[in-house]
Each structure stands twice: as C-alpha cells, then as structure tokens.
Amino acid sequence: MTAPRQDLRARQTRLQDYQAMLARRLREARSLPAVDSFLGLQVGQRHWLLPLPETGEVLEMRQPSRVPLTQSWYTGLVNARGSLLGVIDFGLFCGEGATALQPGSKIVVLSRQVERACGILATRVIGLRHAGDLSLPVEAANAPNAPNAPPAGPEAVPDWEGARFADRDGRDWQVLDVRRLLASPAFLQVGRQAA
Fold this sequence. Notes:
Elements: H1 3-31, E1 37-43, E2 46-51, E3 55-60, E4 74-80, E5 83-88, H2 90-93, E6 106-110, E7 118-122, E8 124-130, H3 138-142, E9 161-166, E10 172-176, H4 178-183, H5 185-188
Parallel strand pairs: 2-10, 5-7
Antiparallel strand pairs: 1-2, 1-8, 3-6, 4-5, 6-7, 9-10
C-alpha cells in the first residue's frame, strides 16, 4: 500500500471512531435525567425555573384570540403547529398584575403532553439554569424552617410553588411545579360566570 492510501484509511478510521463516539454521547445524554436542569424565565418582575422534563417548547410571541366568558388571566388561544393552545397571563394568575411584554417576549409551553399543554406569557426567556449553579437565598437559608416553610399568617404558598434559589448575581428564582399547577383547581377554572 502506498503512503497516501494509508493516510486516507487512517483518516477514515479516525472519522468513523469520532462518529461512533459522538453517537454514543448523544444516546447517553438523552438517557440522563434532566431533573437538575431548568428553563429560566422572567414573568413580570419574578424569575421562574421550569423543570426541563415538564417544559414544552418556546414559541414566538403572537396575539392570542380572545375567548368570551373566561378569567381575566386567560388571554386566549393561539395556533401552535396545528393545535389550539390556551395562553395564560401568569402574572395576572399569580395576582401580581399583567405580565409586561417587550420585544423578544415569548409564549412558553407547559407540559410536553399535548392534551395537558398550555402556554404562559414570558416577559423574557433567560435560558438554561442548573441546580449546581444555584443556592438557597440568604434570607431563606437563615429562616428557622428553611427552605420552603409556608409564611405565617392567612396567606399560604400555593403547592405549585417549589423551592426558592438565588443565582450568583443575587437574583431570586422560584421553581414552578408544572404538574401541580396543571392539576390546580384554580388554574383549571378558566371559565367565569356571565354577569
């Protein structure tokens, strides 16, 4: 065999080895649980962490079509890849006022199951966050019943609000338990009585 042929075979072998290694890594990455990975987003002034396994896609902002006799926080329906998707103003639902929208605002789909999916308005999508990069906020870490004690008094924290964290910049993050939110009677009560 000549030297150029040997070089060509050696390169082909290295390329095949690289492709096999890449395919193996992709298979391994798909099989790893994403329990410590979140999609970070801002809704109004609050920062939320959505667990990746419970989060659908991120859609470009579009004006939902209004639906009569629905709650004020139910903004309407959008067409998402041929399926109707209900869209929620999550800021209004949480009692914090309408979600501020700006250029780059998105609709974030909750749940990967089509029959349970709905979208929430996000002021902005911040990107992936990992549990290892977050810590308990200082005030929560020093509280007697840290990290998730319900507040004293008549107002209880909804069960769909998960753990609170802080990032390196001191920004507070709240985990959103998507499954509990989608099963919450208050969230499921989209319709309202006619006046």
